[in-house]
Amino acid sequence: MGQAIAVAPKSLRAVDAGVTAGFSGIGLASQNPDLTGHGSRIDLLYGYRLSRGGEVMSSRSFRHVPISRRGVLKKSALATAALALAGAPLRVRAAGLLKPVSMTLDWLYEGSNVGFVVAHEKGFYREAGLDVTVTAGKGSASTAQLVASKATQIGFSDGFVAANGLAKGMAIKTIGSIFRRGPAAIIALADSSIKTPKDLEGKTVAITAGSAVFLQWPAFVKGAGIDATKIQIVNIDPAGLAPALINGKVDAIGGYVASYVPSIEIRGRKEAQILWFADNGVTVVGNGMIVHQDLLKSDPDLLRAFVPASIKGFLYGRQYPDEAVAAVQKYDPTADPAIIKSEFELSWKTWVSPHTKGKPLGWEAEADWESTIQVLKQYGGVTAPLETSQLYTNEFVPTDAEYVPPQEG
User: What is the pTM of this model?
Assistant: First the structure.
């Protein structure tokens, strides 16, 4: 029997994420028969209740009644069927027994966010009683807006971006961080003269205006102790950053490592030099699972099921990377497996921050969020009062040792 598929395929990616995510939490699988098991049937399991008047029947409850041989055979068959159903493993639940959940990624299906797709493919969500629809996103800011407007129930968004959105009035909160160490960096070519941040002076660096990296750039400059007046910053669209570096139009680019280095090294055949913001005094929280604050109150059980299953997906994918790559390719057949794997492996370097060592994946440190607030207020133009308690909660993060990730990237 085919497994119900609830992840939006590539053909649906052009549809606006707010629509694809579903209305009122209804997943795509329940709306589109083409997405449920590739046309497979869904068995409805019926219970056979041996009771009378709402009570379980005891031996004293029976009374002698005349029955025929045909009646005996009929009742025996029914009882046998009931026992078979009761004892059979629930390989496929009826759609109504799974709680529909809409979830939007930060970007397209790729290596860095593959844990959610793995959780779906390995049945971790179904085991938790959830029918999760995972939709591709259009950036952390867009995903945060979808969650804030309740167009999607759960999102995967950059913590710095989510905190900035909260400061602007979005009623959102992070319920488990995956990238607990900042994912941003200045990226140059290894064969260039740029080996340290100081070498950026006198060079041209491309950063997308308004991006999280752009907002964090002044903090990097201060932490690295370099002179920003000696560095020319140019604005280039995200899609043009890697080509500009490979073709020598700029000396370096600013971006998330897992998003750019794989393409530079695999497609561009150029080795990259990485200057991590996190190694130069910039402590900010990266991507995590975000929800509307109303959902925290209305359905905490949903989140208690979703968060551990998602974390299990990331950890399983790290243990079996080939399966993780295959999961992405299932929903994006054009994706390069080498790039997917590189994206995933580079993202591991962001899973553990100095303050989250030895803690389960998803667990967030108050010190990291305090620093995130400081960067936002000092360089991000945030003036509204922010408290760490507004930004995150560890309530739904599992505490078992099996959820602690490898400590080295």
Answer: 0.76
